[in-house]
Design goal:
With about 500 residues, the chain is mainly beta. It has six helices and 31 strands. Keywords: Aspartyl protease, Hydrolase, Protease, Signal.
C-alpha cells in the first residue's frame, strides 16, 4: 500500500480546562518572549490510594457503549527505598533504552518488510508489540473471574496486552501475587491456527496446539507464554474476551507491575480490541508528578473526547502500524520561529523513514539532530541571563538556579499542522537533582524518528478518537491560550 496521509486521518485538538498549575505567568500567548518558571525540587512519589471497593463488578451488557475512568500513577510510586535523585536517574536510564529501541525499530521497519514465522517455533525474538521497553505510567484493574487485581503498565508504543502467569518458568518480582489462570472461570487458551492467533506478527504453537506469543523489549526485557482470552474488570466495568498473553517466562524491569496494557494502533491493542465497546476512543492526562491536587487519569469511551477542539492531521506509517504519528512543521522559541527548523526535517517519507510520534512511555522529547541543535541554540540565547551548569546525562543545556524561587525563561511553542502547542515552562525546564540544577528537557537523536515524550505532555489531555470521520473546524477565538491555573487538553481523531 502506498503511503498516504489520508489513509488514516488522525487529528490532534486542544481545549482549555481549569486546574491548579505551577506556571506563574499571567499569560503564555504566542507573542510573548518569556514566561515565569516557578522552581520546584525533584518530587517524591505520591503514595498509592487505590480502594478495592471501587472495583465491584457490573453486569451490564458487554456489547453496549460504556465509559470508564481510571487513575494513573507514575512507575516511581512502586519503586521503593529510592531517593528523588536516584529515581530520576533510573528514569533517564529507562528512557535512553526505550528511545534507542524505538529509533532502531522504526529504521528496521523502513528497511525491510516484516516476515511471519513458519513452523511451530519462533523465528524472531521480537514479534507483536515490537521492541520499545516498558512504559512509565500504570493503573490497577481486575483480571479473570473472579477478578484478581493487579498493577499494569499502560503504553501507547506497544500493542500486545500481557501479564505474568503461574506456573512460572521464570517471573520477575511483582507487587501482587502472580495471576493463576487455573483459578479463573473465564480464562480460555487460543488454539493454533485461529484467526486471533494469526493476528500475532509471528505466532508460535506448542505441543498442545495452543497459540504461543513472545514480546521482547529494547532494554532486554521479554515475555513468553500462551496466547489467551480473559475478562478484564475496570472500576466495575467488565470487558470480556480480551486477547492477552499469559506469560510463563518473563524477565525485565517492570518495577513491580504484573504486565502491560498495550494502547497502540495495532490489531491486538486494547483500544482496537474493544473498539465496539468504547467506540474506539480513549484519552489520558499526565499531571506533573510534583502536583498532588489531581492524579493523572485515563478515560475510555465517548466522554474521552472534548467538544471544543483544534486539529492537526496525524499520519499513518504503513511499515509500522503501532505508533501514533503527528505532523510537526516548526518550533518557536522566545516568540520567534527557529530558523532551520522546517517540516522537511520531520517528514515521514513513503518508505516509512523519519516522522514524529507521540509516546506515553518515553519521558524526554527527542528531535532529529539538526532541529534540536537549532532549537537549543535559540533557547540558550534567550536564557543567556541564567547561570550555566555542566551537562547532565543526556541534557547538554543546564542551569544553576540554586537560591532562586522563580526565573524568566524563553517561551517554547511546537507548531503542528493547523495547531500550535505552547508549552508551560515546567514542561521543558526540569530539576535534575536536589541542588538547584535545571536542564532544558529536550534531546537530539541521530536517527530520523522524533518522539514527543511524556514530560512535554504533562498537563495535556491526549485524546485518541479512532472512530470519527469528520474534521472539526473552530473559530480563531478557540485557539489555544494559556493563563495561570490552566492546562490544556489534546484530542486525537482518525477515520
Amino acid at each position: 500500500m502506498a503511503w498516504n496521509p489520508r489513509n488514516a486521518l488522525l487529528l490532534l485538538s486542544f481545549a482549555a480546562v481549569f486546574l491548579p498549575y505551577t506556571v506563574a505567568s499571567s499569560s503564555l500567548r504566542f507573542n510573548l518572549h518569556t514566561q515565569t518558571l516557578v522552581l520546584t525540587s525533584l518530587p517524591l512519589p505520591h503514595p498509592l490510594t487505590w480502594s478495592e471497593s471501587e472495583f465491584e463488578t457490573s453486569e451490564s451488557d458487554p456489547d453496549s457503549s460504556a465509559t470508564l475512568s481510571l487513575p494513573l500513577h507514575h512507575i516511581d510510586a512502586i519503586s521503593f527505598n529510592k531517593t528523588p535523585d536516584q529515581l530520576f536517574n533510573l528514569r533517564l536510564q529507562r528512557d535512553a533504552s526505550r528511545a534507542k529501541a524505538l529509533t532502531s525499530m522504526a529504521a528496521k521497519a523502513a528497511a525491510r518488510n516484516r516476515t511471519r514465522a513458519r513452523g511451530s517455533g519462533f523465528s524472531s525474538s521480537v514479534i507483536s508489540g515490537l521492541a520499545q521497553g516498558s512504559g512509565e505510567y500504570f493503573t490497577r484493574f481486575g483480571v479473570g473471574t473472579p477478578a484478581r487485581y493487579v498493577y499494569m503498565v499502560l503504553d501507547t508504543g506497544s500493542d500486545v496486552v500481557w501479564l505474568q502467569c503461574s506456573p512460572c518458568k521464570k517471573c520477575y518480582t511483582q507487587t501482587d501475587p502472580v495471576f493463576n489462570p487455573a483459578k479463573s472461570r473465564s480464562f480460555a487458551r487460543v488454539p493454533c491456527g485461529s484467526p486471533l492467533c494469526r493476528r500475532l506478527d509471528s505466532p508460535g504453537c506448542n505441543q498442545k496446539k495452543v497459540c504461543m506469543y513472545q514480546v521482547s523489549y529494547g532494554d532486554g526485557s521479554f515475555t513468553l507464554g500462551e496466547f489467551s482470552t480473559e475478562t478484564l474488570t475496570f472500576r466495575g466495568t467488565r470487558v470480556a474476551r480480551v486477547a492477552l498473553g499469559c506469560g510463563h517466562d518473563n524477565q525485565g524491569l517492570f518495577v513491580g507491575a504484573a504486565g502491560l496494557l498495550g494502547l497502540g494502533r495495532g490489531r491486538l491493542s486494547f483500544p482496537t480490541q474493544t473498539g465496539r465497546r468504547f467506540n474506539r476512543k480513549f484519552s489520558y492526562c499526565l499531571v506533573d508528578r510534583s502536583a498532588s491536587s489531581r492524579p493523572s487519569s485515563i478515560l475510555f469511551g465517548d466522554s474521552a473526547v472534548s467538544r471544543t477542539a483544534r486539529f492537526t492531521p496525524l499520519l499513518k506509517n504503513p511499515k509500522l502500524d503501532t505508533f501514533y504519528y503527528v505532523e510537526l512543521v516548526g518550533i518557536s522559541v522566545g516568540g520567534a520561529r527557529v530558523r532551520g527548523v522546517s517540516a522537511s526535517l520531520f517528514r515521514l517519507d513513503p518508505a516509512g523513514n523519519g516522522g514524529v510520534i507521540i509516546d506515553s512511555g518515553t519521558s524526554v522529547t527527542r528531535l532529529t539532530r539538526p532541529a534540536y541543535t537549532a532549537m537549543r541554540d535559540a533557547f540558550r540565547v534567550g536564557a543567556s541571563h541564567l547561570k550555566l551548569a555542566p551537562e547532565f546525562s543526556l541534557f547538554d543545556t543546564c542551569y544553576d538556579l540554586s537560591g532562586k524561587t522563580e526565573v524568566k525563561v524563553p517561551t517554547v511553542v511546537l507548531h503542528f499542522r493547523g495547531a500550535d502547542v505552547s508549552l508551560p515552562a515546567t514542561n521543558y525546564m526540569i530539576p535534575v537533582d536536589s541542588s538547584g540544577i535545571f536542564c532544558f528537557a529536550f534531546a537530539g537523536t541521530m536517527g530520523g524518528l522524533s518522539i514527543i515524550g511524556n514530560i512535554q505532555q504533562q498537563g495535556f489531555r491526549v485524546v485518541y478518537d479512532l472512530s470519527s470521520s469528520r474534521i472539526q473546524e473552530l473559530h480563531e477565538t478557540n485557539a489555544i491560550a494559556y493563563i495561570a491555573h490552566m492546562y490544556t487538553c489534546i484530542r486525537v481523531q482518525t477515520q
